[in-house]
What we know:
About 30% of the residues lie in helices and about 25% in strands. By secondary structure, it is α+β, with helices and mostly antiparallel strands.
Amino acid sequence: MHFDPVTLQILWSRLISIADEAAAALLRTSFSTIVRESNDFATVLMDAEGNSLAENSIGIPSFVGLLPRTLKHMLAEYPLEELRPGDVLMTNDPWMGTGHLLDITTAMPVFHQGKLVAFAGATSHMPDIGGTLWSADCTEVFEEGLRIPPTKFLVAGQENREVVRFIRGNVRVPDQVMGDIQAQITAITVCARRVVEFLADTGLADLTALSATLQARADGAMRQAIAALPDGTWHGTVFADGYEDAETRIQCALTIAGDSLSVDYAGTSAQIARGLNSVMNYTYAYTVYPLKCALDPMTPRNEGSYRAIGVTAPEGSILNPRWPAAVNARHLTGLFLSGALYKCLAQIAPGLVVADSASPAPRPVYTGQDDRGDRFSQVLFGSGGMGATQGRDGLNTTAFPTNSGSGSIEAFEASAPILVWRKDLLVDSGGPGQFRGGLGQEIELEVMTDQPVRLSLISDRMKHPAGGLDGAGPGAPALVQLQDGRKPHPKSRTMLAPGDRLTMHLGGGGGYGDPVARDPAAVQRDIVDGYVTPEGAQRDYGRKNQ
């Protein structure tokens, strides 16, 4: 079937709007602030073969391209011929899904005129999954929480009560967890309904021909962008703090051959007996997403967007660990991949990339009981500075390559007995360069309950801040400490007493270009705006306040 360009654009835009409407339903009906405020979710429309057709516009990058992979694992347990209208499949297996147990994925088959024509899928981060909270100090995945193999959460529209019972019986905040799962069901139900309306309106019997055309267009756009770059192999290396004194290394080789691109992570650190390991699915997502941003940012994403990109990592490495490795804090590894990739691309296309950003930023998870005896489990998301580009300063307190955000402080305080005393830009934190890195932020929080509270801290960038490109300097490192100067373990759990105050520095982004080349007027403007102190300007740029 042939679609003229105008009709194709209209149909493509409508499919994206379906995914976006499903996302809006998930946001409006979810219980936890992780979804409502911090954007840690995605909704995806897939064709009958499980290929992604449309992803919601603001879906988190760690879920990019993964729902089709997860669906294929589900269908291995529940073949197509066994699916019925109203069925909903579910799993949170890290190796099948998004890399750790806290993300639950659901998928619903969509039927039209008695024929399976599509799948509606959703993934979101749960407020709790049992186990040892969201931390990095476990040694095996068994310690990290409840693992749900592929199962049917709904059977012909009826809730599987046994599944509900074992989930509720293994999590700290069952009402929030089940509320977020039901929000996913609402979202994919909306998606399925809109797909049926779409087919009825357009007169299409199914999505097969449209899917093939859209994927071919996306594939062609990416291949055209790759073909514009020179053939060859380029290398990039970044280091992370790792666990205690054992830092981790990410080694990347990016190869371009015609209109295809491959990334090989040979030479990367071996997997470790802590929760920093990134399963291959997560490694894949945070490889293809930064490449899509740099090479083909304007074409809507679908399965075809990633066909030209190959990703490999040695089995048994920190980027492709063997089961049952601990994986709870896999973002402390995966969020470093863009830095290595962009070091490669900066050698051949410097105008397409940003310097390293201060992700992952420290994330505190507070768990305990409030003064009424109600249990809570609450995480505060926050963003450090974004790296600069070849021509523009980095954005302040803006995450990359993730797009999760802190959301409303009022919503956070309403969900846990934690008071946020301040949340300010961190002066002098942007990496110095011809173009300055974005500023990080300083956050101060106090425990307001009469009960001790458990803090589970997930942080990095204390030893290895966001690096600059082309002669620029790094951003400021991260810092986490209590009011008496004690520093909680950056990747483990600590008990906090009532009244304890925690101060966090979320670091700055790396700069771009030689700081000596920065426009004096830009330095002066930074001083006036309070982004840089006069002392910082003298130290980093050799200029005093005029």
